[in-house]
Amino acid sequence: MKRVLIVAGLILVVAAGVLTYAQFRPRPAPARGDPAVAVAVAVGALLRSEAHRLSGEQVAAVLPLLRVLRDTDPNDLEASRALAEEITRTFTAEQRAELARLREEARARREDRQARGGRPAAPGPGVGLGGAGAPPGVRSRAELRRRLLDRLIRRLEEAG
Asked: Tag placement on the chain: N or C end, fewer CB within 10 Å?
């Protein structure tokens, strides 16, 4: 009987430890706040723009930075932020103004959609994290980020 109580106590202690670890372990930053995703969206918008397209010199400057950003740990927000800022510094004042205008348009569309009772501005649970709303084969936010950056790098190599 004494052994049974000791084993049961050990099981409870281990279970409590596992639950505590699961509750307090560091969680990765949400994709929405990922500087790599934000700068990739910006570079992609400039690639699609007729009037504010990236120059050959800008593409040559941005490509190596994007490669480093792709290989940076997504949880290292400081390094990702620094690389994203370095990429943004290659943009002209007109390109930055165009990106600000596009962001404002997107914000207004989200607010309008919310006001009309549309879907929420932020993705639901599982979207982009390998859940039900994730693209087939995507298992994590890190993988989604890497695929986005890989695709952008290929487009820049073709454009350059």
From this structure: N
Instruction: Quote the distance between the C-alpha of residue 146 and its chain's center.
Output: 9
1-5, long-range: CB within 8 Å, 24+ apart, which pairs?
none
Dist CA 84 CA 43 (whole Å): 10
Residue 146, both tokens: 């890497």
Closest CA to 84 of 160, 149, 141: 149
- Which residue stretches of the chain are H helix? 2-24, 35-48, 56-71, 77-89, 93-115, 141-159
Calpha distance 144→149 (Å, rounded): 9
Question: Is the pTM above the cut of 0.70?
Answer: no
| b/e map 77-100, b = 16+ CB within 10 Å | bebbbebbeebbebbeeebeebbe
Query: Which residue is it, tokens 């390998």?
Result: 130
pLDDT single digits (tens) 130-152: 445 555 555 788 899 999 999 99
